[in-house]
Amino acid sequence: MPEQHDGHLEIAQYHNDMKVLMDEADCLIDLPAVERALDDMAERLTQSLSDSMPVFYCVMNGGLITTGHLLTRLGFPLEVDYLHATRYRGGLRGGELFWRVSPEVPMAGRHVVIVDDILDEGATLASILEYCHQAGAASVSSAVLVEKMHDRKAVPDLKADYCGLEVEDRYVFGFGMDYKGYWRNAPGIFAPRGL
Ligand SMILES: O=P(O)(O)OC[C@H]1O[C@H](OP(=O)(O)OP(=O)(O)O)[C@H](O)[C@@H]1O
Ligand code: HPA
């Protein structure tokens, strides 16, 4: 079965490429610094939201790890749901926003917090925030682990209400963020060498 054989070879080659990518990557933010940023975000979220019975919506897939780490730092009652909107779809450049899964917990009258890994050009967050307002949320806040520093924002001056860290203008991966679908599990924030 040559096709299957070729497939195995491709995967083996890709495995090797991905290992080399990680070995050569620049670590922009190490794990202790990420942990400190999460502590700080959690403290600010607690100050603002601890009495409001908020709903946290994880933006899949990238928001998964930040959401998990953030939620375990919050000692007040809250609900959790997710939505899946993507505009990179495994690539390194963003395109049209594609809604894969809409949230299930109704937003009307609720204090909503959107959690994602990165605010890059901001088109994803801007669309999601608009969705939340249209859905009748009582308030809408956004929390992102990192914001990328550049002047290509989709909406001028768009900022997250809670931001953990700033990163330079390079393609980054780790702590939820992928490089071509891989390395969301990398423990810190990295940039491929030369990118
Ligand atoms: O600020 P922007 O330029 O809009 O980019 C930020 C978005 O891009 C990534 O998602 P992606 O579309 O890659 O999907 P993923 O979460 O499945 O990786 C990331 O998780 C953010 O949601
Ligand atoms: O730099 C990035 N890395 C991973 N995912 C992303 N989504 C937007 N920007 C990025």
TrEMBL record:
GO terms for molecular function: guanine phosphoribosyltransferase activity; hypoxanthine phosphoribosyltransferase activity; magnesium ion binding. One of its GO terms (biological process) is hypoxanthine metabolic process. Pfam families: Pribosyltran. Keywords: Glycosyltransferase, Transferase. The keyword Transferase applies. The keyword Protease does not apply. This is Hypoxanthine-guanine phosphoribosyltransferase. It comes from Kushneria phyllosphaerae. The lineage of its organism: Bacteria, Pseudomonadati, Pseudomonadota, Gammaproteobacteria, Oceanospirillales.
